[in-house]
Amino acid sequence: MASFEHNKSTLLLPILFITVVLLIVSLSLSTATARDNITPTQPLADNETLVSAGGTFALGFFTPNNSSDRRRYIGIWYNNIPVQTIVWVANRANPVIGSTGQLSVTANGTVRITNRETSTLVWSVVNHFIFLTNPVVQLLGNGNFVMKEEGDNIENNYGWQSFDYPTDTLLPGMKLGVNRMTGLNRNLTAWKSEVDPSPGEYCAAMVIGDSPEIYLFNRSSKLWRSGPWDGRQLGTLRSWNSNGRAFTYTFVNNYNEVSFSIQVSYQTILRVGQSGVLQIRAWVPEAEGWLLLWQIPANLCDNIGQCGSNSICDITQSPICRCLHGFTPKNPANWEGGDYNDGCVRRVAFDCRSEGADTFLSLNGVKLPESSMIYLDSFSLDACRSECLKNCSCAAYAISVGGGGCVIWVTDLLDVVQLSYAGLDLYMRNGLTDAASHSQPQKANWRIVVVIVSLLSGALLLSCFIFFLWRRKKRRRVILGRTILFSHKLDEDDRRKDLDLPLFTFGTIAAATESFSAENKLGQDGFGHVYKGTLGRDKEIAVKRLAKSSQQGAEEFKNEVMLIAKLQNRNLVRLLGCCIHGEERMLVYEYMPNKSLDAFLFEKEKAALLEWRTRYQIIVGITRGLLYLHHDSRYRIIHRDLKASNILLDKEMNPKISDFGMARLFGGDETDYNTRKVVGTYGYMSPEYAMEGIFSVKSDVYSFGVLLLEIISGKKNRGLYAFSPHLNLVAHAWSLWNENESLELVDEAMSNDFPSNDVLKCIKIGLLCVQDHPEDRPLMSSVIEMLGADITSLRQPKQPGFLVKMGPELDHISNNKDPHMSNELTVTLDGR
Ligand SMILES: *[C@@H]1O[C@H](CO)[C@@H](O)[C@H](O)[C@H]1NC(C)=O
Ligand SMILES: *[C@@H]1O[C@H](CO)[C@@H](O)[C@H](O)[C@H]1NC(C)=O
Ligand SMILES: *[C@@H]1O[C@H](CO)[C@@H](O)[C@H](O)[C@H]1NC(C)=O
Ligand SMILES: *[C@@H]1O[C@H](CO)[C@@H](O)[C@H](O)[C@H]1NC(C)=O
Ligand SMILES: *[C@@H]1O[C@H](CO)[C@@H](O)[C@H](O)[C@H]1NC(C)=O
Ligand SMILES: *[C@@H]1O[C@H](CO)[C@@H](O)[C@H](O)[C@H]1NC(C)=O
Ligand SMILES: *[C@@H]1O[C@H](CO)[C@@H](O)[C@H](O)[C@H]1NC(C)=O
Prior knowledge:
The chain is an alpha+beta fold. The chain folds into seven domains: about 1-35; about 35-165, Agglutinin, subunit A; about 165-300, Bulb-type lectin domain (Agglutinin, subunit A); about 310-435, Hepatocyte Growth Factor (3-Layer(bba) Sandwich), CATH 3.50.4.10; about 445-495; about 505-590, Phosphorylase Kinase, domain 1 (2-Layer Sandwich), CATH 3.30.200; about 600-830, Transferase(Phosphotransferase) domain 1 (Transferase(Phosphotransferase), domain 1, Orthogonal Bundle), CATH 1.10.510.10. The protein contains 16 helices and 46 strands. An eight-stranded mixed sheet has the order 28-27-35-31-36-33-34-32, covered by helices on one side. α10 (about 610-630) packs antiparallel against α13 and α10 (about 610-630) packs antiparallel against α16 (about 780-790). The radius of gyration is 33 Å and the shape is flat. It binds 2-acetamido-2-deoxy-beta-D-glucopyranose (7 copies). One 2-acetamido-2-deoxy-beta-D-glucopyranose (NAG) binds near residues 45, 47 and 48. Belongs to the protein kinase superfamily. Ser/Thr protein kinase family. Its main location: membrane. Its EC number is 2.7.11.1. Keywords: ATP-binding, Cell membrane, Disulfide bond, EGF-like domain, Glycoprotein, Kinase, Membrane, Nucleotide-binding, Receptor, Serine/threonine-protein kinase, Signal, Transferase, Transmembrane, Transmembrane helix.
């Protein structure tokens, strides 16, 4: 026993020793790390910073844009992010001039910024809520700067907190909205400029009412509204959650508060930019940049009242504005000219005499109209309908998910937007002649007029038709299969042109492709399967059997096909005809014996066949084809899915662009959340298109740039670079360019016998085309000129827009190192 006691005490000694050593080490460590608070006896000088526990955030004096300016502000930024990212500013409008500022807290809990040299008070806040004997102001791990009693760790027991006074940035944990108890209104106001944090013009705020919504303001004018809570999301604001990357938000609307807050799985901020945009960005360490995940306004329909009153904005249609059912343009001339400001007016009055005679038409999945609605508490939809019928000015009703009742509109309907995801249903009241079941005798006269008019116009149409048939007879030319006449709106030009477009029967196509046999299958893509076929003895064709996701009716489809068939250029694949059979839609093209460019480019052996001359010929051909689509054809077509597999090669290796106009054929579906993957391919998508589906000719130019770099390098933009320091081919090309090593990009499969100046010029053009800002990218007409010009006459390319893979919905986001994220997207939407 005794010896055991002895052993125990000898064991204790070293343990004690180690403990003491550890204690000393940890003490010295803690004095080495920066403190996270200030007390009345320990103010913060200009040359010091506080660092939050965990090291995520830092607080101290800073100069905007990290310049050598003398204006000093107290701010909070990310401590571990090398790009200056200020998320909060205390003295936004009152800088300390020079480095003599001091942040302190008084014994009664007033936080002050003073200029020690001039003894002036620059900024202060007072303790509103709690009694403090030993006040301490601490930077918490979530970036909240709070005033509290020393040693008191009760959450939210603060005398003041920075989270209640956001500047332009919403951090996770912050709330945007109104505290109904205290009246505190927490909104985000942009910086005035990159170098001036004082409150600027743009502000994102929660506007409370019966259906609270987030609005983006330009001073007092409204730029954008989210739309009301629909039970799952706040209007058009989407959450996402995939592969451990998440952006979700919480919307609270109760007796105490209306608030919006974000939850994220990585460093993410929501910010109002100085250019009037609301952005969500995430820090991606691999890219050393704040990647733009989402931005508002993203397209024209995001602008409040884009289409004027009583109209609906649908970004997938062209034109995007359309009068609501029962309305007609107030000023038809302007409306036709694309000026929608005047909006629409009611075409027919409601039948208010006999209650219940009016019917309703539902508009599904829309952003509900803005203008003053009347909220009916705990009314069911049916009750709402009857209520609407009672008031002759009531034009529509809808469920109010946020409020638990319904809403009716007795005014003009403003800012109705068609959404391809989420949204609510709006029930529009039908006017007199729109209602199906009307049989009042007073209307008999009307009916006669209608009958006569329709008879007359029928006769007129018939004679036009006959005349037209007669004209056609003389110039009919059967190209292939059966030719039929379309009932298409014809303008003079169309009349003069040949309108033949063969409509093949299903039987013909099935026979040509041996019933779509597997041996005849050439490939498939997002739009459907492609088969090789033989018509008659030896006419080879390629048949694209479209996936069923096209929602277009037969007539609409035919019109679109006809339009596309009119695009003829030696660098476009020729559309020979189409086939419509029940739900089936097929396109018949000329057959290209050398298949597609990707089959050559990305296969080592075949790539060797592509000498520089051939590659250059392909580049020029694609440029011509795209130029034709963008500018030369009568219809402005944006391809939207330009990539190596869409470039087909004929016998002489001449490139022909295929799949143009597919976005049109897929009609209203094109920006749909689910089928959006169909249009566009990751790796080729421009940042602005990938983000929110903003497309323009400049998004095609971006894809063209990627294609150009691929043709030169023989490498795919994505895939090969997963384990290299570069994100993708574009990033790789950019870094080689900056190191003056661009020729390293050239495909090894190519012999060394090439004019390096021409290759360098093409690389430069490629880089000009993939620049981050769409407005920096050249038009195809300039690209043609550049190909013929001297390399020294070309501008220097700016940083490209990179695309990083981050999960299904975020497969494509851009990188921007701009510290204040003033990255502006001014893309004009161009439907045709
Ligand atoms: C900050 O500057 C003061 C003089 O203005 C100096 O006494 C102090 O040591 C400096 N502190 C640090 C951490 O550099
Ligand atoms: C901000 O800093 C960057 C680089 O330091 C500079 O290029 C830019 O012009 C500055 N912005 C302003 C508005 O001064
Ligand atoms: C500002 O620039 C200096 C070097 O000029 C650098 O050490 C510092 O980290 C930068 N600050 C921020 C917040 O980016
Ligand atoms: C706190 O003390 C400061 C001076 O130290 C004084 O100006 C201020 O009025 C006091 N505030 C309150 C709420 O007592
Ligand atoms: C934003 O908040 C400030 C301070 O609460 C308030 O004065 C301002 O009116 C708010 N702006 C909007 C647009 O709600
Ligand atoms: C904001 O309003 C000003 C005029 O008050 C205007 O010049 C500016 O273009 C507007 N900004 C946006 C983004 O609409
Ligand atoms: C319809 O509702 C509006 C708004 O509440 C009201 O001003 C108007 O008097 C109502 N009209 C009828 C006929 O009830």
